[in-house]
Recover the amino acids of this structure.
């Protein structure tokens, strides 16, 4: 996937986990936790969503690399998704 | 004939607004079916039926404000009691359906959170300018209403002013009526966290556990041995509960708090509890809780979680008689076997009701909890 498609995929996943945020503008650099009061359950559901959308097994140790929209896109790109 | 009444969904609820009927007269109803949706200060709640029967008559119409205890429907059936007792359906799969932003032909897209905020503020949606991508979000609604501070901007589709009133009413009643005592311990949870890391390493992404899952299970299993902290105090009488139905305090985006319950937490396996918790949080986020979840908690757990604060002194939610608060887990120097080690420490506070128990009960609970948490495998 190219960067634009990956961005869309990450956004879609985020809105599925937090339907109350559907359509909200996302700042690419700010961590989701700080931007949307994401708690640990939201974050875990988001990781599960990324796993389901891409088939990637994301180890717990990689979670810090998935904090923001930009982080997620870079991470998935490096995994050749 | 059964009279189905507007249920009380917490000590703070006086009335509900009927949003829609999901069954019509003549429909056969089964125990656990959702009969109607009612708007409360806690958002839209699905009202369940607690007996089998046939719906005869709907006594309220959408938009009606109905006081708690007033008959809203008549059912034909054998059983006499229909006020919700205890029976949430266990759903193995998260059942919440995400609501999506609406796009009407020729009109800008508006997010659900923004639409609700606009309604609250009495703004005409068609007068709000969209952003560069044609979407009306919270920011655009706020911009068109200068008197709105960001703090008031609801994100989860709930009137936060109303919710704040409801929280204040329940907590004022608690502080007025319940003689609280507080007992607290710092507990070494390193063994639990080590077990969790090992367990999660062998689990696929979708099955991984948050530490809240084993923690809530251990809290519930320990409460089984301390029945004076688990039950309801009503009309000068304490009734201990048969199972631990734990209300889980969940913060809502934008402010506000709900504590819907999970039934029989002590009797669930780790994975059953994981699924229940995921389902519950999902429905809090999408704004669809069930009536039984708001009325049957016998105790409440308030877990602050990661990156928060060390200790909390929680307030009991009436008619319950205890609430357990867990602070964030921090690394601390800790004496173990005569030596100083760096360990993972969590502060656990029990608020109890002096009409029912003394600090001694909470101290015994904390001591047993510590024993279980230092040997967490399967606990």
């Amino acid at each position: 996937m190219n960067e634009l498609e990956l961005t869309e995929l990450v956004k879609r996943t985020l809105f599925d986990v937090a339907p109350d945020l559907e359509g909200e503008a996302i700042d690419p650099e700010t961590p989701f936790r700080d931007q949307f009061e994401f708690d640990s359950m939201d974050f875990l559901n988001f990781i599960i969503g990324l796993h389901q959308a891409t088939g990637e097994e994301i180890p717990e140790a990689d979670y810090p690399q998935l904090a923001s929209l930009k982080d997620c896109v870079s991470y998935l790109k490096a995994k050749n998704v | 004939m059964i009279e189905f009444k507007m249920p009380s969904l917490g000590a703070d609820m006086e009335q509900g607004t009927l949003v829609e009927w999901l069954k019509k007269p003549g429909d056969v109803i089964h125990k656990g079916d959702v009969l109607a949706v009612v708007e409360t200060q806690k958002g839209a709640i699905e009202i369940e039926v607690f007996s089998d029967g046939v719906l005869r008559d709907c006594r309220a119409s959408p938009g009606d404000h109905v006081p708690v205890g007033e008959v809203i429907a008549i059912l034909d059936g054998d059983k006499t009691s229909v006020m919700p007792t205890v029976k949430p359906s266990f759903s193995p799969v998260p059942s919440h359906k995400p609501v999506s932003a609406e796009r009407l032909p020729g009109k800008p897209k508006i997010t659900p959170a923004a639409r609700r905020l606009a309604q609250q503020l009495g703004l005409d949606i068609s007068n709000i300018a969209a952003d560069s991508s044609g979407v009306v979000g919270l920011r655009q609604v706020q911009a068109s209403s200068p008197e709105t501070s960001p703090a008031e901007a609801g994100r989860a589709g709930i009137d936060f002013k109303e919710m704040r009133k409801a929280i204040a009413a329940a907590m004022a009643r608690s502080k007025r009526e319940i003689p609280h005592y507080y007992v607290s311990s710092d507990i070494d949870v390193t063994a639990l966290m080590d077990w969790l890391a090992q367990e999660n390493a062998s689990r696929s992404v979708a099955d991984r556990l948050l530490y809240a899952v084993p923690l809530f299970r251990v809290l519930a299993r320990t409460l089984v041995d301390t029945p004076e902290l688990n039950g309801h105090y009503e009309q000068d009488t304490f009734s201990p509960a048969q199972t631990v139905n734990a209300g889980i305090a969940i913060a809502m985006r934008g402010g506000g708090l709900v504590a819907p319950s999970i039934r029989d937490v002590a009797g669930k396996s780790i994975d059953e509890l994981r699924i229940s918790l995921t389902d519950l949080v999902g429905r809090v986020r999408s704004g669809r809780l069930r009536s039984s979840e708001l009325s049957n908690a016998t105790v409440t757990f308030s877990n602050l979680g990661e990156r928060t604060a060390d200790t909390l002194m929680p307030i009991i939610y009436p008619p319950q008689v205890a609430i357990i608060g867990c602070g964030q887990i921090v690394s601390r120097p800790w004496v173990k076997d005569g030596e100083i080690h760096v360990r993972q420490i969590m502060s656990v506070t029990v608020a109890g009701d002096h009409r029912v128990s003394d600090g001694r009960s909470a101290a015994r609970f904390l001591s047993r909890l510590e024993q279980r948490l230092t040997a967490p495998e399967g606990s």
Notes: Chain B has eight helices and 22 strands. The helical segments of chain B are 112-121, 138-143, 160-177, 190-201, 212-223, 270-286, 291-295, 359-374. The first strand of chain B starts at residue 2 and ends at 5.
